[in-house]
Design brief:
Chain B: Keywords: DNA-binding, Sigma factor, Transcription, Transcription regulation. The structure holds two protein chains of two kinds. Chain A is of the alpha+beta class. Chain A has helices at residues 3-14, 21-54, 110-144, 203-207, 211-229, and strands at 71-76, 80-91, 95-106, 155-166, 170-180, 184-194, 199-200, 254-256, 262-266, 279-282. Chain B has helices at 2-31, 34-50, 61-83, 86-90, 106-110, 115-126, 131-137, 142-160. In chain B, helix 1 (2-31) runs parallel beside helix 3 (61-83).
Chain lengths: 285, 167
């Protein structure tokens, strides 16, 4: 680096720090930790409501198939593949949006292909529209209360997918939408396809008619194990009026991992406090 | 996944304690007042810790924290400008007409720049941040950061008469 910069940097760093800085910082750390705990308790109260919103039902609409540039990522033999049909970023004053939108290609079953793709498309359009409205409202409120337009921190939205399992039998992928404003919140959508049968596979198909009982047992045991393992691991158990895990839902989200084992997914706040994040449980048949 | 948040949070506390001097200096460069700079640092820390859930990736910690710090500094600077008599806050920074023959020291010259250019230059040269990180921290895009950097460097060259290529 240029020596003039070295000099300037030295002057910058030589600026005296006030004696009470360390004390002030320690105090602020303590205050921040307290507020964080407070927020957690609040979130726990809000958890039921949030979980309710997050599990909105799938609406299947008929719409034209996807257009747009097609460039493919992983190939799953001749039978099926998941491709990225749309990849874009929006960077403006209100939001930073990154989207990688998947679509399914099934050689043998265009009905299923179209149904799944339409569903993905509809859902993401809706989610982005909502996020956009929210960003606009938030910014208007920010400006109305005296904030400067240019200081508004944009909402960050990321839509992405991950292929969890691909073999001759199954194709499983997870679509996530993460929205970050004050804190990040991720919604998860899962798709599991039985390729030879050409249909979406359910937990009942994988685990048998007793699938609920089986999964619930496995999840309860795993929750107990995780709680025993580390006192920081906490799940809701009905305290403060927030119901914890009782049973998997009829349309429980899950994906198949690389070994073809179903993994049940709970969103943040759904069965545990927010700091626990997303919760996943392997259900070994 | 569930443990990562706890780990990130602890890393954040360590980072804050270790970086307090840097935070104070940066805040001071905006508010130009010792107590106000302490306030800004404290407020930023409280905000950061209470929102640490939104920091998902430790590699963004610095940008993420500086974003909060810069926001708080700007808020304070603006508030200060409204409440405190102008001469108290702006006396030092109101750039007197430059005598074209006079060569300023780089550090003093920096104070003559527009605030946004100062920010980019401080973060780049004093805090060793990458331009991408600066873009995140100032919530602007990379091109804006670059143009502020080059504009700032050009002015500094004029003020100091030194060649100041970006390192």
């Amino acid at each position: 680096m240029h020596e003039a910069w070295e000099r300037a940097r030295a002057r910058y760093q030589a600026a005296a720090l006030p004696e009470e800085l360390a004390f002030a910082v320690a105090g602020a750390v303590r205050r921040g930790e307290r507020q964080r705990k407070g927020r957690r308790a609040l979130r726990r109260a809000a958890a039921t409501a949030l979980a309710g919103c997050a599990c909105f039902a799938l609406l299947l609409n008929v719409s034209p198939t996807f257009a747009g540039a097609v460039y493919q990522v992983p190939v799953l033999g001749q039978l099926a593949r998941v491709i990225t049909v749309k990849e874009y970023s929006i960077n403006d004053r209100d939001h930073l949006i990154d989207v990688r939108l998947p679509a399914l290609e099934l050689a043998a079953n265009t009905d299923l292909e179209q149904r799944v793709n339409t569903e993905i498309r509809t859902r993401i359009d809706q989610v982005l529209q909502e996020a956009e409205d929210r960003a606009r409202e938030t910014r208007e409120a920010y400006v109305a209360t005296g904030g400067a337009q240019s200081d508004f921190i944009p909402i960050i939205i990321t839509v992405d997918y991950e292929i969890k399992c691909q073999n001759g039998q199954y194709l499983s992928f997870v679509l996530t939408k993460t929205e970050t404003l004050a804190s990040a919140y991720t919604e998860v959508y899962t798709y599991n396809i039985d390729l030879p049968a050409g249909r979406e596979v359910s937990l009942r198909d994988l685990l048998g008619p007793n699938y609920k009982q089986l999964a619930n047992q496995a999840i309860r045991a795993e929750i107990a194990r995780r709680e025993a393992e580390d006192p920081d691991n906490r799940y809701f158990h009905g305290e403060d009026g927030v119901e914890g895990f009782t049973s998997i839902a009829d349309d429980q989200r899950f994906y198949l991992n690389g070994d073809g084992v179903p993994v049940v997914v709970f969103e943040k706040y759904e069965i545990a406090p927010g700091y626990m994040g997303e919760q996943e449980f392997e259900i070994i048949p | 996944m569930e443990q990562t948040e706890g780990i990130i949070h602890r890393q954040l506390v360590d980072y804050i304690v270790a970086g307090q001097g840097d935070f104070y200096r940066l805040a001071y460069s905006y508010v130009q007042n010792r107590d106000a700079a302490l306030d800004v640092v404290q407020e930023s820390i409280v905000k950061a810790l209470s929102k640490s859930d939104s920091l998902r990736r430790p590699e963004y910690m610095k940008s993420w924290f500086y974003r909060i710090l810069l926001n708080e500094s700007m808020n304070h600077f603006r508030r200060g400008r409204r409440l405190v008599p102008l001469e108290d806050t702006l006396a030092d920074r109101a750039a007197p007409e430059t005598d074209p023959g006079l060569r300023l020291d780089l550090y003093d010259a920096l104070e003559r720049l527009d605030l946004k250019e100062q920010t980019v230059i401080r973060l780049r040269f004093f805090e060793d941040m990458k331009l991408e990180e600066i873009a995140l921290a100032t919530h602007t895009n990379l091109n804006t950061v670059k143009s502020r950097l080059y504009k700032g460097l050009r002015k500094l060259r004029e003020l100091t008469g030194e060649e100041l290529n970006d390192a």
